[in-house]
Amino acid sequence: MPETSFSLPEATNFIEQIINEDIAAGKLRPEQVQTRFPPEPNGYLHIGHAKSMFVNFGTALKYGGKCNLFFDDTNPSKEKTEFVDAIRADIHWLGYEWARECYASDFFDTIYEYAVRLIKEGKAFVCDLSAEEIKATRGTLTEPGTESPYRDRSVEENLRLFEEMKAGKYKDGEKCLRAKIDMASPNVNMRDPVIYRILHATHHRTGDKWCIYPMYDYAHPICDYLQGVTHSLCTLEFEDHRPLYDWVGISLGFDPKPRQIEFARLNITNTVMSKRYLKKLVEEGQVHGWDDPRMPTLSGLRNRGIPAAAVRDFCSRIGIAKAQSECEYSYFEACVREYCNANAERAMAVLSPLALTITDYEGTEQLEFDINQAQEGAGKRAISFGKHLFIESSDFSLDPPPKYFRLKPGGYVRLKNAYIVRCDDVRKDEAGNVVEVLCSYVPESHSGSDTSGIKVKGVIHWVNADTCVDAEVRRYESLLRDAEYAGQDFSERMNEESEKIVPCAKVEPYLAEAAEGTPFQLMRTGYYKKCTEGGKLVLSEIVSLKDNFNKPRG
């Protein structure tokens, strides 16, 4: 093995092992490693694309190389500038920077000329078979295909017909250009694959200049080569396409030819991981849009308040493997929860308010409240305490079950960061529902300087009824009710209660004063993002306090 004048980074996955072998063999230097992130602009990116970004951008960064943003815009009927802009925003949100932004359409002229060259060398031919007829003659995994009756057209005729295709003489599907490889190949992808098709559609960048477009499997290796990509990192479904990738590069004499390496895509339980189905959800109005907080799109995660750092951490933890696997959604939530616990401020909010009056307390006072006890040096802030409070209705019971440590008649409980109170009486409405809890307090039980000697097991949160503000609280569950079962489509698995709105919660005024997008841990409730819509305070759930996936909420 040739000696190198540089040290190789330690390989932490099989892709890096392959790259290290190429470097050690003298094929390139570390800083010459070049990858590309190749989304098709036909929809918004989802969390699965975050892993592809982590692999492509992360690999290039580790070696001091480059990663391009490459838009595979070879199918104009489904692509929009809107999607291009959204993809750029998603990449920036995750904290990645590309060396160069380019498009397959940048290379359309060269890709066409390469096709002409293949025709001249007898490696491609114009075929009149329809897509259905081509499929019918493709053969099976155990039987060879049947050669097209147009396979032996002369070079001159193929050149003329291909030029006429380009000039718009034929309708969609009337003709196509196929590579001439081997109809008996054990790999079905090598059985004279279509490399150009007719498509009369306006392209989002080139307009109506072209009415023929290259197929992805043909354009992919060419665009990689023209960009200077050294290692083309793809998800595992392209493994069977690698022989065609190599055939194109070898047939056109690429030197050096990019090397395609496949890795397992990200699959997450209870999560729609298909742009086609995500688009269906948007178009059918089952969600509020591509950025609906329940959507696994990166714009949806961003809108929900998921920290970009937590997404990157998740991708790092699940690793890069060759074998397909499925990750539990709860593991992703755990990564988000861990980040939020370390970084989110603490606050109190009451979602189902029940009035609590301390009958023997007068005046108001400012209490100290930890901004984030998990963050060293975060400090404290002041909260207002008074006679009239709101507590969660679930924190009081007239007829409590055994081992109920919250408030009950004659029972004691500590109000978070405040005093111990005792329930002396209740006030009910005409229907017999408790509408107010009447308590007395223990003055010597002030939190942090308790000399009362009273031991209580229950601690509940509260807000000052005289200073609190109203807020709409939005809580979310998975769009899908359960893990995937064979024979079911997404419409049969939709969770009709994936979004729950609490229209009038009572919250600290501190939440209203916070900057837009600030994440908070609402004590005993969950992690939420603050936002304002039409002058209304909205708290949108980021993640629960603990794993409650697929479990009913009480």
Q: What general outline do the C-alpha atoms trace?
A: elongated
Number of helices: 14
Record field, number of beta strands: 25
Rg value: 31 Å
Low-confidence stretches: 548-554
Distance between the termini: 64 Å
Q: What is the strand content?
A: 15-25%
What kind of sheet is the major sheet?
7 strands, mixed
Tell me which oligomeric state these chains represent: single chain
Please bin the fraction of helical residues: 25-40%
How would you classify the helix and strand content by structural class? alpha/beta
Give the strand order, joined by hyphens, for the main sheet. Answer: 10-23-24-25-21-22-11
Characterization of the model:
There is one protein chain. Strand 17 and strand 18 (434-442) form a beta hairpin. This protein has 14 helices and 25 strands. Helix 11 (308-318) crosses helix 12. The chain has 554 residues and is an alpha/beta fold.
Helices and strands in order, then pairings?
Elements: H1 14-24, E1 34-37, H2 47-63, E2 66-71, H3 81-93, E3 101-103, H4 108-120, E4 124-127, H5 131-136, H6 155-166, E5 176-179, E6 194-198, E7 212-214, H7 216-227, E8 231-235, H8 242-251, E9 259-263, H9 275-283, H10 298-304, H11 308-318, H12 329-343, E10 345-347, E11 349-350, E12 353-358, E13 364-370, E14 380-386, E15 388-392, E16 412-415, E17 420-428, E18 434-442, E19 459-460, E20 463-464, E21 469-476, H13 490-493, E22 499-507, H14 509-513, E23 519-522, E24 526-533, E25 536-544
Parallel strand pairs: 1-2, 2-3, 8-9, 10-23, 12-18, 16-19, 21-25
Antiparallel strand pairs: 4-5, 5-6, 6-7, 11-22, 12-15, 13-14, 15-20, 16-17, 17-18, 21-22, 23-24, 24-25
Helix pairs in contact: 2-11, 7-8, 11-12
